[in-house]
Design goal:
Layout (H helix, E strand, L loop, with lengths): L1 E5 L10 H18 L3 E4 L16 H11 L4 E4 L2 E2 L5 H14 L4 E6 L19 H19 L6 E2 L4 E2 L40 E4 L3 H10 L2 E4 L4 H18 L11 E8 L3 H19 L3 H8 L14 H7 L3 E4 L1 H15 L3 E5 L7 H15 L24
Parallel strand pairs: 1-2, 1-12, 2-3, 3-5, 4-5, 5-8, 8-9, 9-10, 10-11, 10-12
Antiparallel strand pairs: 6-7
Helix pairs in contact: 1-11, 2-3, 3-4, 5-6, 10-11
Length: about 400
Amino acid sequence: MRFDTTLFYHVGEPYDWGLLFDEMHETVVLVDALGYTGVWLAEHHFAWDGWYRSASNPMLLGADVVRTSPRLRVGQCGVVLPDWHPLRVAEDIAFLDQMSKGRVDFGIAPGINSRACAHFHPAGDRRDPARNRALFDECLDVILKAFEDRPFSHRGEHFRFPVPGWKEANPLAHDPAYHAEDGELERLGVFPKPWQKPHPPIYQMAESRESHAACARRGIATMSQYLSAGRMRENWDHYREVARAEERPARNPGVEPAIMRVAFLADSVREAERAARPGINLLGAWGSANPYRRRTSMVTPEEWDEEDIDLDWFDFQMKHDTILVGTPDTVAVQVERLRDELGCRHLALFLNIPRLSFGQVKRSLRLFAEEVMPRFAESDAACRSNPLPEPVEQDA
């Protein structure tokens, strides 16, 4: 199995940013030495109260990660496309991929209903999900065109490239691949192109059935965080159905869906639960204004029990196995279930439990790496009980 992690941001704390960056550098060195495959970097804005503090630019932070580590892969969970200009994203991801010699995983997201909302683009306002989604889809269209080796043009609801009416004044600069006979720019070329071909693996942060279907149509992978095994199985089955029905080519053959899990390990179950419970309950209170709707969306109707609404957020997630909290032995059993029951081969640890100390997080990372990861080091080909369909060859 592939094991990745996030960094630790001291969510909810008025923590000094200079010290935080020092700790993030230390974490990158640590997870590199411990044998993790990669790190996933979130994007959030306007964390004046500490919620939700993280990198505002995961691509820029990713450049620092690959400078610090000669080995780790770096992903974004994810780049919130409606908050960015798509040509800038295409350039920055390709530049990072070249700079790292192919160590980028391109993670994307349409965003959540947060205070960031419309401050970057009016159509990105998450209070209008349909409009936000349309902008997200068009941004991804532009980025994928920009990754291609040939010149491109685009005309959509929000963007038009090239801008009409611009002409190259110098006849010596005319290129028929880009210009009309009169010198008007008809197609664009964005450089550099990614190191990985045709582009870095693309993952969308996705939890709903609809998001998984959209990813299947695109031929891109998904990463889910808070879902039960039953809900993930439903989503992955639906992904396969859509991919088969549309014969959609996989943009990154061999790239499989990933799972991210809140994780904290300690030397005893009691110690782990005592340390993690307050912060995980705080995450639940922060993350949803409608606890009933949020909880029922995480599990299948068969898994749901009406008494679940009376559980605190920590006990609800422990009951439905959506967090990894315990000792190396108990957490290893949970990871085995993800591998054997779902066919999961790619797991990322989410470290950002409020009220933990940096020392506790480092200890947890070490326990997982030294006592859990070695149990999955052997070939797991026989454990792929639920693989995605074979990719369809793309047209030249």
